[in-house]
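Notes from hallway chat w/ T.B., transcribed later so I don't forget. T.B. wanted the structure written out for a chain they're using in a teaching module, and asked if we could keep both sequence and structure tokens in one place. Agreed to drop them here.
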Amino acid sequence: MNFIMDGGPIFMVPLLALLIVIIILFAKGLKNNTEKTHKLINSLALFSFVFGVLGFVIGMLGALDDIAEIGGDIAPQVLAGGFKVGLLSPTFGMVIFLIGKLFTIILTSMKK
């Protein structure tokens, strides 16, 4: 769970909350398999992906602004570390997207 704090709680905590909601909807869908549940899981999964990418873009804009302020003289190790941290939120968003899609596939295959 350390990656949540490393990736920035402003974006990672809502992504974690979205994952929990998707899991709850999947459990609900196992009992009451409706088209509304499928669409909601798909929408939340896609939102998670886009929200993670938004976190990366906002983080990189801030980082590039800081680099411009200090004159562009930055160590490659610092830059690589920044990219690593910046890529945590889109990666988590992609994982949530894939989990949501997997849940939708499972629910669709169980539908009569």
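Follow-up for T.B.: Helices lie at 2-6, 9-31, 35-70, 76-86, 88-110. Might be a good example for the class.
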